[in-house]
Amino acid sequence: MDFSALRNLISRYCAGEENWVDSRTVYIGHKEPPPGAEAYIPQRFPDNRIVSSKYTFWNFVPKNLFEQFRRIANFYFLIIFLVQLIIDTPTSPITSGLPLFFVITVTAIKQGYEDWLRHKADNSINQCPVHIIQHGKVVRKQSRKLRVGDVVRVKEDETFPCDLILLSSSRDDGTCFVTTASLDGESSHKTYYAVQDTKAFNTEEEVDTLHATIECEQPQPDLYKFVGRINIYLDRDEPIARPLGSENLLLRGATLKNTECIYAVAIYTGMETKMALNYQSKSQKRSAVEKSMNAYLIVYLCILISKALINTVLKYVWQADPNRDEPWYNEKTETERQRHILIRAFTDFLAFMVLFNYIIPVSMYVTVEMQKFLGSYFITWDDEMFDEELGEGALVNTSDLNEELGQVEYVFTDKTGTLTENNMEFIECCVDGHVYVPHAICNGQIMPGAASMDMIDSSPGPGGREHEELFFRALCLCHTVQVKEEETVDGIKRGIHQGKATSVYISSSPDEVALVEGMKRLGFTYLRLKDSHMEIQNRDDEIERFELLEVLNFDSVRRRMSVIVKSSTGEYYLFCKGADSAVFPRVISGKVEQVRARVEHNAVEGLRTLCVAYKKLSPAEYEEVCHQLSSAKLALQDREKKLAEAYDSIERDFILLGATAVEDRLQDKAADTIESLHKAGMKVWVLTGDKMETAAATCYASKLFRRNTQILELTTKRTEEQNLHDVLFDLSRTVLRQHGSMTRETLSGLSNEYHDYGLIIDGATLSAVLKPSQEGSGGNYKEIFLEICRNCSAVLCCRMAPLQKAQIVKLIKASKEHPITLAIGDGANDVSMILEAHVGIGIMGKEGRQAARNSDYAIPKFKHLKKMLLVHGHYYYIRISELVQYFFYKNVCFIFPQFLYQFFCGFSQQPLYDTAYLTLYNISFTSLPILLYSLMEQHINMDILKRDPSLYRDIAKNSLLRWPIFIYWTFLGVFDAVVFFFGAFFLFDNTTFTSNGQLMTTNTQMMFGNWTFGTLVFTVLVFTVTLKLALDTHYWTWINHFVIWGSLLFYIIFSLLWGGIIWPFLNYQRMYYVFMQMLSSGPAWLSIILLVVVSLLPDVVKKVLCRALWPTTTERIQRRKANMNFERVVTFSHDSLLDGVQSTSQA
């Protein structure tokens, strides 16, 4: 066969697929086609190995190092380290090399461990056993050894090892049932079909005799699209060609259900399967805190360069005086003197950069990494977020965004399965205006004692009775429900009820199951589909058989489905059920007004409604319908379009029978959660594919809309009456009339007032708003739409496609305030918005785990979002903002005295501190207290945070990492550094004061030299920064006490050992006995205490004044709690005193 002709044929069949690259030919069972049929061209395909890991054993070190040094801070420290190695610098290369090595090693270990877990998961999948047919026998192999063209046998409840084309099934009709929960989140059963010509091959021997080739498109990620054809070689010369579509393709990761076994051929394997192609690497999300950190880093880098420049210039200014060129003990060699002044100046500049480089805190990055990684366990360990029903708690997939949970301004939520339970319950049906309400029916559960029927309104007459039974039959026949006689759950057989076997219904739609069970309560039981005949049991316990001739499947465009059946009396019926908007226009008779009124009433109540209609077909009409459907199904070109046209011409001229109402209940505490989010200053948007009335009713029930909320509609119905431009400007005028005087700060969504507008928009109108128009006014529409949304307390977007959900999130993210967004959903249709939002949360719902797997965090129920944001998010943000500011503060305190010291040592790059102190300051002496603070701090009790959501507003808009606060911390660091340096300097300047009181000679004065001065400054520094953190700590535990006082003790012990022993590995021992000598002086002790107190005083005074004059809500609550504790202590002391007095008097 000519391959170019084939390519053209398939590309035409692909209707509109412009990016067609190539096709592939798969030889089933690796058998060559018969001689003369076509050229045998074996193609190379990848094996079935799945690889989700980033590294291999060989590339881990170079690849990981490359990724780590792309980080600006790591790269900067590497450069500093290399400079220290190359030129003669004042400090040892170890001082930069050791912290850098520590950071790189810790990060590499963390990433290596995570990748090892990925390797482990890959191996468990790749080594799963699969059963392959070879030479008529079943051979067991590892999954990774599967090849394209292998024929595979899959049994019930097994997962498909790769993408397969169904050849035959144990079911006579060649169908099989599949759940695709792990792929698209839908846990319902879907039906797949074998090709008519291969479905008879039911044993290993028969399958082995099959001679066929499959020509299909190259792999692409669309789960719902597949185009190909199968050529079957029988005894004749020409092969039989049959089209293949997505209904024949079984996807990797899906599970076989309700079918004993199937035979299928592998067409896409390994990383070419649709599941693997959908594993797109998620774009790296960065939190607002990380962006602030990088901005601060640049500021400090500028400060560092400025310091180095100032010192370099001043050095040459100072040395310009010939008397001051160089001291005798530091004279340069002749080669150094001959060097060009610019080279000397540049070398000095680099030396100063090295000397001051500690102002950039490299260890901050590793501390932040550890804080995020360890802190994320608090979410997974939270018992309140554990769900007994699921037996699971919250999961953290990305620990990088913990603090972002405390910054959310917009929450985008799905409705079905997120706000509601996705557990359908049949409520009522209406036949010709008569309403039938059975007892409670719950999905999949057969309730005892619910056989009776409650009739509302008067009973129908004889004609009505006939219509009523026809309605019940229609609902028993018009569906794709399968019946399973016995369902095993947790080893217990379900479906045995009151001693006799009953059935369990399974379907691709939970609505259908609820409807069929509802009919069962009303006396009509659907029994089974057998040999293309549907059997139902009527009220008189008689079995009625209907031959199922055609199924016109449901699709989201038509929003209805139909079946054509033939009764035992030979009459042809077409039954149709669908959305009211899809059925009413096609009805020519029936009690339309009564049914429409009931449908509208139920929609307002928040129930999901469907309308049912029918028409009788004559044999001639049926023949015409068959001809239309078969010609459309066999079309290779524009098949979908032709089918849609056929359905449209068939599904018309109906007689209306009635309508049904099904309820999808709100999740537990969903309303309370939404109310709390509103109080916390967040705007909640509901994005759903449901219809407007149902979604609006859910919004009222969940308190998204309140009774006093004025609803603004931006829907297709309204834009048909008025053009879009006018509607938008009307709405804009309405909302801005009241909000005109509001500030931008209030508009951002953190206002507690003006909760009086709610907007409803549908998918079609949203597309019109976002679509750029030819006149270029589309941008204006977008701005007006955003302005309206910003002034609404809640927004409902209904009839949304998955991509539109992501577009909405992207639109808000890109608006001028750049708010932090959160998306929460439970199904595969929510994945796009979860990936788009700053924080994505998946709910472990009934629609599979696709959303939970693609999210940053996963929670069992919507109600857990409240604690996750208001408590965990609040704590994470408070902790990490203190960590970041504190790190920069303590490094300013550390390095600014070094800068001041250069003015007193002739700018000779002499270090103030010893090498060991320079190296260990950030690694050991001051790192643990802040790490522990950032893991355990609770400035307010978590019960108060849950009870008072408004506290969330105190930390909104990244308020603790704003520039004024950053500048305050920096100036505080500079002030403390000046106190350390000049305090010690002036105290040392006084000979009497610095003497130890025993030997007041010059020799004693000499003992207090350069290293003693530096050690005194360093001691005051370590005590001040550690005690500053102790003052900021509100939540004290024994661990805090152990770490804070333990760090100070460790510093003292280390200094005593470092200076008290002659270490053999050191070339020079400049710190020998320095620390002991310093501590033997009483004035040194006094100066340490005095300087620590003076350094901490301004911050304490500032805090006291701010809390007294301008307290935040948080600080008011802290004061109230402190007062209560104080009163409790006073009362207890008073009672104890009275008891003591009474006992004394009694004695």
Automatic annotation (TrEMBL):
UniProt entry keywords in alphabetical sequence: ATP-binding, Cell membrane, Endoplasmic reticulum, Endosome, Lipid transport, Magnesium, Membrane, Metal-binding, Nucleotide-binding, Phosphoprotein, Translocase, Transmembrane, Transmembrane helix, Transport
Any one cellular-component term (Gene Ontology): recycling endosome
GO BP terms: phospholipid translocation; positive regulation of myotube differentiation
Binding site for Mg(2+): D414, T416, D826, D830
Active site per database record: D414
GO MF term (any one): ATP binding
Catalytic activity from the UniProt record: ATP + H2O + phospholipidSide 1 = ADP + phosphate + phospholipidSide 2; a 1,2-diacyl-sn-glycero-3-phosphoethanolamine(out) + ATP + H2O = a 1,2-diacyl-sn-glycero-3-phosphoethanolamine(in) + ADP + phosphate + H(+); a 1,2-diacyl-sn-glycero-3-phospho-L-serine(out) + ATP + H2O = a 1,2-diacyl-sn-glycero-3-phospho-L-serine(in) + ADP + phosphate + H(+)
UniProt-annotated location(s): Cell membrane; Early endosome; Endoplasmic reticulum membrane; Membrane
Protein name per its UniProtKB record: Phospholipid-transporting ATPase
Species whose genome carries this gene: Denticeps clupeoides
Gene from which the chain derives: ATP11A
